[in-house]
Each structure stands twice: as C-alpha cells, then as structure tokens.
Amino acid sequence: MATLSERNDLKALLAWYVDAGVDVTVGEAPVDRLSPAPVAPREEPPVPPPSHRTMAPPPAAVLRPASTASQPAGGTLSDAAFSARDLAARCQTLDDIRAALAAFDACPLKRTATTTVIGDGNPRAAIMLVGEAPGAEEDRQGLPFVGPAGKLLDRMLGAIELDRTKVYITNVLPWRPPGNRTPTADEIATCLPFAERQIALVAPRILIAVGGISAKALLNSAEGITRLRGRWVEYRPQGAPAPVPTIAIFHPAYLLRQSLAKREAWRDLLEIQAHIERLN
Ligand code: URA
Questions:
Q1: Which domain holds residue 122?
Q2: How many angstroms is it from 163 CA to the middle of ligand 1?
Q3: Is 51 a domain residue?
Q4: Which has more pLDDT, 69 or 184?
Q5: How many domains does the chain have?
Q6: 206 C-alpha to ligand 1 centroid (Å)
Q7: How far apart are CA 174 and CA 195, in angstroms?
Q8: Residue 171 domain-assigned?
Q9: Is 14 inside a domain boundary?
Q10: Radius of gyration over alpha carbons of the chain, in Å?
C-alpha cells in the first residue's frame, strides 16, 4: 500500500509526464517485446573510484575540442579568477573545496550570501549536474536545488529513475547573487574553477549542465541554451584526466515559467536515460 508521500510523488511524476506532452505509454522507437532476450533490471552499477573509471562511449557530437576551460569567451581573467584557479587546482578532495571556499574572499557575492552552497547527492555518482547559482531557499539551507526549481528538478530526475543517491549536484556559483540577479561574467569566471575542480574530483561519466548560464560557462560558449541543449559534447574540466560526455538541459526555473518547453526537456531526459543505458 503506497504511503501518502509515495502517492504524492506519483501524482507529481504523472503531472510532469502530462506537462511534457506524454499522453500515451509508448515510446517513439519501436520495441520488440517478444524478443526472448531477458530484460535485466536496471541498476546503478557500483561506481569504482574515479581513478579506475572507464570513459563512456564517444558522444554523438563534439561541439568543441577539449580545451582549457575557465577562460571567459573573448575576455581576460581577473586577479580573483586567477587566484581561484590556483586555489581550486590545489584541492584534492571535496572537503578541500569546502575549506578553500571558506578561505576565499575574492568574490563579492560571498559577502551578501548567507551560506556557501557546495554540493548535494552522491559524490561517487557517475552522473553529475551543474546548475547556475543558489536561489533564496538554497541560500537558507546551504544545499543546491532545494527550492521550487529544485523540486521540479527532482521530479525530472525521478522521471528517468534517478534521484540524489545516484547523482551529484553542484552549481557554477556557490553564492547566491543578490535578488537572484544574473551573475556577471567576472563572478562566473571567479567561481568556475571551484565547480570545475569538483567535476574533476567527482569524475562523472556523464555531466549535465542545467540551464544556459551553466552550459555557457562550462562549454565556454556564447550560444544560448536553446541551441546548446540536447546535444552531447565533450567537455574536459581543468585537471581532469579525460573529457566527460556533457549535455545541456533547460533550467527547471525556466520550465516553471515556460510549460511548453517541457516537451523538449522530456526529449533531453530520454536522451540522457538512453546514454545511461549504453553505459551499463
Ligand atoms: N537554480 C540553480 O541553478 N541552482 C540552484 O541550486 C537553485 C536554483
């Protein structure tokens, strides 16, 4: 017998499907259900330590060659960004990142934020998501994606059988921009090395850039999310041994305002699910 909270979760999941335009329970590609091949239950494989992980199959498309990230498109790095790079590069663990951010005072956003929001989820997960910056609720709780957009993100992950035990989540910026304003290029360049170092340390097999700010910052691209989303690209964070297949998706905060975009978001989620199945 499902509990009330399980029933509410199911209702939320169904609402997500309906919003995403899923009105029949068949996929777009035919499936041979008469095939004798047994369908193994899909389970998250044990994730070996990062240094032992194998790379995923090559992504469908390469947007740009793996390059030195963190160099703002067409811009120069500020002193703050340089010292962030230095500090981040010396971090060997996520605890080091936490300590480094506690000691780092060169980003003015830290002064107006209540907390430093680092990561949530499973730091040994094969799937990592990087959002933009904490909002009001995240700033209060010190955790990424726990406000309204985070609740939608959880439903989106649930729709492809993921949850926070199977992913690690962080943001490009660990501090909330006042009033949730868009972060400046300088703020992004200053904070990005810490996000990139987290990616290198977690060493995911799939990286998901959540929203345009994250996609542009990580992929060092001037293109908007509408063009960047839904395509696999290879992204190599500073200090990472190998490139990570990376895909951008619409930000859930955008989906809360633009319900129609949930159709594309659903396609992207299915693409991510298919990629995960190929890894297994
Ligand atoms: N939006 C983000 O990009 N990240 C959060 O943590 C919350 C909202």
A1: 75-279
A2: 16
A3: no
A4: 184
A5: 1
A6: 19
A7: 8
A8: yes
A9: no
A10: 19
Average confidence score pLDDT of the chain: 85
Q: Is the pLDDT of residue 67 over 60?
A: no
In the numeric block, which tokens belong to residue 184? 């400046």
DSSP class per residue in 62-87 = -SS--------TT----HHHHHHHHH
| Range 38-60 average pLDDT | 38
Task: Ligand 1 pocket test: pick from 117, 128, 170, 171 the residue with the most ligand atoms within 8 Å of its Cβ.
Answer: 171
pLDDT tens figures, 24-38: 565 555 555 566 554
HSE (side-chain half, CA atoms, 13 Å) at 131: 27
**Which residues lie below 8 Å from residue 103, measured CB to CB, with a gap of 6+?**
87
Lateral strand order in the sheet of 233-235? 119-121, 167-171, 127-131, 206-210, 244-249, 233-235
- Cα separation, 68 vs 104, in Å, equals 22
Is residue 178, in this structure, part of any structural domain at all? yes
How far is residue 215's CA from residue 132's CA, in Å, rounded to a whole number?
9
Residue 148: exposed, middle, or buried by beta-carbon count in 10 A (0-12, 13-18, 19+)? middle
CATH number for 221? 3.40.470.10
